[in-house]
Design brief:
The protein has 189 residues and is α+β, with helices and mostly antiparallel strands. The chain has one domain: Orthogonal Bundle (Cytochrome p450). The chain has five helices and six strands. The strands form three sheets. It has a two-stranded antiparallel sheet. A two-stranded antiparallel sheet has the order 2-3. Helix 1 crosses helix 3 and helix 2 crosses helix 5. The protein starts with 5 loop residues before the first helix and ends with a strand. The relative contact order is 0.17.
Length: 189
């Protein structure tokens, strides 16, 4: 039981129809790209997939995505004056009418909060993964994606000798847009 009320179920359904395909495929491509760039982690993630250790595989998925998140930043409009980080030494007033660029990518690499952020490490606290946002602006597909993305990655990792295609085809190609448009993988039959 995930505890969604009827309104959230309806919003999730509509959200998945509108934005679920592009963001899910982007996450899958970007996770695989990051894992393939790290042979030790790729092999360990594949090992977790083979034995069906879903929790361990999910840790590999979300840690890989931390290095190349699907939403590196979001743009927001501040409707009223707001004191950001009010009770800290880094407090800052954001004036009404300001356009704010909130960077999840830099937040997930902030060494003031993340211990050795440049290192691929499992076991980081969930709150350090900002893939789905927080609070009122939490992704509508978060509950589905938490299950769906690792499950799809698992099926791909189970392919025999999964690897990038040679040359440019084996590199993620965004073709100038925000989502991956081409990424060719190969495997043995």
């Amino acid at each position: 039981m995930i505890g969604l009320d009827e309104e959230r179920v309806i919003a999730n359904t509509i959200g998945l129809l509108v934005g679920g395909v592009e963001t899910t495929s982007a996450a899958i491509v970007q996770v695989l790209d990051e894992l393939l760039a790290r042979p030790v982690q790729f092999d360990a993630a594949r090992g977790a997939a083979v034995v069906g250790n879903d929790d361990l595989l999910a840790q590999y998925v979300w840690e890989a995505l931390r290095f190349h998140p699907i939403n590196p930043f979001v743009v927001r409009f501040c409707e009223q004056d707001y004191m950001l980080a009010a009770d800290t030494a880094r407090k800052s007033l954001v004036k009404a009418g300001t356009v704010v660029l909130a960077s999840a990518r830099s937040g997930m690499m902030d060494d003031r909060e993340i211990n050795t952020p440049e290192e691929f490490r499992l076991g980081r606290p969930d709150y350090q993964n900002m893939h789905f946002g927080y609070g009122y602006h939490t992704c509508l597909g978060d509950q589905v994606s938490l299950v769906q993305i690792p499950a799809i990655i698992q099926r791909l990792l189970l392919c025999k000798n999964l690897r990038r295609a040679a040359g440019p085809d084996g590199q993620v190609d965004f073709q100038g847009g925000p989502f991956p448009e081409k990424f060719v993988l190969q495997f043995d039959v």
